[in-house]
Amino acid sequence: MMSKLLRIAVLASLAVGCKTPADDGAPQDSKQTPSEDGGSSEDEASPMGLPPMAKFFTAGLDKPGPYEEPRQSPDYEDGKPYHVVMELEGSIDELQSFDLLSGGGMGKPLHEITNALHESAADANVKGLVLRVNGLSLDMATAEELRRHLLAFKGDGARPVRCHTEGSGNASYYLLTACDELALSPLGDLEIPGPAATPVHVKGLLDKLGVQTDFLHIGAFKGAAEPLTREEPSPEMMQTLDAIVARSYDTMVAGMVEGRGVDEAAAKAAIDQGMVMGSRAVETKLADEVATWEAYLAKATGDVAWKKHKKKDDALADFGALQRFLGLLPPERPSGPHVAVVYAVGNVIDGKGNGTVGARQEIASRTLVATLRALARDENVKAVVMRVNSPGGSALASEQIWHAVEEVKAAGKPFVVSMGGVAASGGYYISCGADEIYANANTLTGSIGVVGGKMVLGPALESIGIKTYEVHRGQRALMGSPMTPWTDDERELVRGWMETIYEVFLGHVAAGRTMERDAVHEIAQGRVWTGVDAKERGLVDEIGGLQEAVAQARKLGGVDEDAALEVYPGEPTIRDLITSFGQVQAGGVSLGMRAAVEELAAVAGPETAHAVASLLQLTLDLRDAKVWAVSWVRPPR
Question: For residues 470 and 458, what is the distance between their CA atoms, to the nearest angstrom?
Answer without folding.
Answer: 12
